[in-house]
Design a protein that fits this description.
Blueprint: E1 2-9, H1 20-30, E2 35-42, H2 51-59, E3 65-68, H3 71-74, H4 79-92, E4 95-98, H5 115-156, H6 167-178, H7 183-190, H8 194-207
Parallel strand pairs: 1-2, 1-3, 3-4
Helix pairs in contact: 6-7, 6-8, 7-8
Length: about 210
């Protein structure tokens, strides 16, 4: 069994590897013999376009652990997209363990259970995982709605100017794109999120 820890942050301004020490301590307290691999990326949890998450799943074997700090690091997806991701996880035979989902912690414990107890714990864990994923999506939608309402109020008051553009970052992005680099390669080179590269490219095309 390998432990594959997934660390995600929404934007390049956030430190996706922030929780690594906490996950290290969690693993050490439950299973000191398992090898841990880390997959880190800055992408929205509301999107299935997450290369590192799918690299993790492609490299996983049945019985491996997908470890996250919180369920919302894994998913802020719509119900349909969450079902797609859950289907892939289930097909790979990977077990999800989240620090904020105590019923999943027993998957790392060095204990064995009988078949019936194991199935019951698995069913309970899956139910709670789905519930936390639904809560994470609702939280995402609520925050987006409040943000939109705040922007509208600021516009009405003549105070909204939008998020300032990092001109130097956009210059470096466009330079890479002009050199023929792919969107993903450009994001890796300049050290930003793929969505930032896509925005810079779209702005250039609109200005052309």
């Amino acid at each position: 069994m390998y432990i594959r820890a997934y660390l995600r942050a929404s934007t390049e301004d956030q430190d996706a590897s922030r929780a690594k020490e906490q996950l290290d301590n969690f693993v050490a307290s439950h299973n000191k013999t398992s090898t841990t691999y880390y997959y880190v990326e800055n992408e929205s949890g509301a999107s299935l376009q997450r290369p590192e998450l799918f690299r993790l799943l492609s490299e996983s074997h049945p019985g491996d652990i997908l470890l996250v700090e919180q369920v919302d690091r894994l998913s802020r997806l719509t119900d349909g997209d969450w079902k797609k991701l859950r289907g892939i996880i289930s097909e790979k035979g990977v077990k999800v363990v989240a620090l904020d989902l105590p019923t999943s912690h027993q998957l790392l414990a060095n204990t064995t259970t009988d078949a019936f107890t194991g199935r019951m714990l698995s069913a309970i864990n899956d139910m709670l995982l789905d519930m936390l994923a639904a809560i994470a999506r609702k939280d995402y939608e609520d925050r987006r709605r409040r943000q939109a309402q705040g922007i509208e109020r600021a516009k009405d008051q003549g105070q909204y100017k939008g998020r300032p553009i990092d001109a130097d970052l956009h210059r470096r992005i466009l330079s890479c794109l002009d050199d023929g680099k792919s969107l993903r390669k450009t994001a890796d080179i300049v050290g930003c999120a793929l969505s930032t590269v896509q925005r810079a490219k779209a702005m250039k095309e609109l200005a052309a």
